[in-house]
Amino acid sequence: xxxxxxxxxxxxxxxxxxxxxxxxxxxxxxxxxxxxxxxxxxxxxxxxxxxxxxxxxxxxxxxxxxxxxxxxxxxxxxxxxxxxxxxxxxxxxxxxxxxxxxxxxxxxxxxxxxxxxxxxxxxxxxxxxxxxxxxxxxxxxxxx
Length: 144
Known about the structure:
The chain is mostly helical. The chain has two helices and no strands.
């Protein structure tokens, strides 16, 4: 930015010593250092804010791109769902039998459950009914 060499700094120092004087020169140098530090911090803060705003703008652009692609994806999925739904409903309509003329007294045929293997069927066993309780459950002898 400024191209100041060592010899030019020496000239500025000598002029400041003559103009300001030896008693006030250290105080002026300290004040100038503080002001220069504040100026550097201010410039750094401004640069940081500008960078932050640029990043925020980039993030907003990215967010809008992502929202747009999400909307596009959603619309394409909806279109595909509607296409599939119409295809399935067309297949369902084609698979339904034509309405037959009604015949009184006839029922639609029912299918019997198919057995996988022919084999012996279980035989039901009859058990005699209990007419009285076994002796240990007799009501006349209370259990202690």
